[in-house]
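Please fill in the sequence for the structure shown.

STRUCTURE ENCODING:
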């Protein structure tokens, strides 16, 4: 049985992730008490339900406190599981709660604001984030993009292939939270300061030609590609099925986009499923 534990911050998009999982034949249960997980697994085993996604999060209150013990019991019984952890920026979560007018599960006598509740929730969930098999940061994702990410990771036809998510980004907008490996290419000459290229992007040949005409760009490209050609099989051999490689420049429109596109082409010769995200391409 394929068992997936879905967790993460309140307001980060777990309900949308569950909808996407249901569309690809997962049997989903939201907000299940941890102590019932073992019983539910037994039921699924008897009834031959082979793809299960269970949402367990801070809404469980006191019941959530022994979650780690329940996970140990599941492992001791021989059931393998994976954890999908969803997160988002504090600002976005606060905005979502304002928009929906719903109450954060921890807001009450002790925590009076959503900001305080988020801080406490992060503390409580830190151990799950460290255990997570997959982390998805929904801060810059539309509902459609979130569904695409879920599909890319969990569609059964792809389960034996390494999934590589290549993200271009701008450091001025912050690091992609889910990154496994980050490359900083701000040392390369910046097309932003070339008037003819300022408002173009790394998706265009003129920008790519400018970025790659410098010797340091060619040297770095070879070093980066050679290193990743070595590292990716090592990660795959260790059992990692999803690798997030982020490439950053200042604004996330020229150099990082160029290198992400070139790296995507380089990876096509391998049997990997590659997902490209240009996170900051449309930002002002």
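FILLED IN BY: designer on duty
SEQUENCE:
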């Amino acid at each position: 049985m394929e068992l997936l534990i879905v967790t993460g911050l309140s307001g980060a998009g777990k309900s949308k992730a569950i909808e996407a999982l249901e569309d690809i034949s997962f049997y989903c249960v939201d907000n299940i008490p941890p102590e019932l997980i073992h019983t539910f697994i037994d039921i699924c085993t008897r009834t031959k339900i082979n793809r299960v996604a269970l949402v367990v999060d801070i809404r469980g209150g006191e019941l959530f406190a022994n979650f780690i013990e329940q996970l140990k019991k599941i492992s001791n019984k021989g059931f393998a599981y994976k954890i999908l952890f969803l997160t988002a920026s504090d600002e976005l979560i606060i905005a979502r709660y304002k928009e929906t007018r719903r109450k954060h599960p921890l807001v009450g006598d002790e925590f009076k604001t959503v900001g305080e509740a988020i801080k406490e929730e992060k503390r409580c969930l830190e151990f799950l984030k460290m255990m997570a098999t997959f982390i998805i940061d929904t801060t810059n994702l539309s509902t459609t993009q979130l569904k695409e990410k879920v599909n890319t990771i969990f569609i059964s036809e792809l389960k034996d292939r390494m999934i590589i998510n290549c993200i271009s980004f701008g450091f001025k907008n912050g690091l992609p939270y889910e990154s496994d490996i980050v490359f900083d290419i701000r040392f390369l000459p910046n097309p932003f300061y070339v008037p003819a290229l300022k408002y173009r992007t790394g998706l265009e040949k003129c920008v790519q030609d400018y970025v790659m005409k410098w010797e340091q760009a060619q040297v770095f490209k070879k070093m980066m590609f050679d290193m990743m050609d070595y590292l990716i099989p090592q990660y795959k051999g260790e059992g990692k099925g999803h690798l997030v490689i982020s490439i950053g420049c200042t604004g996330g429109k020229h150099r990082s986009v160029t290198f992400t596109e070139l790296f995507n082409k380089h990876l096509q010769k391998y049997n990997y499923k590659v997902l490209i995200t240009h996170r900051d391409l449309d930002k002002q």
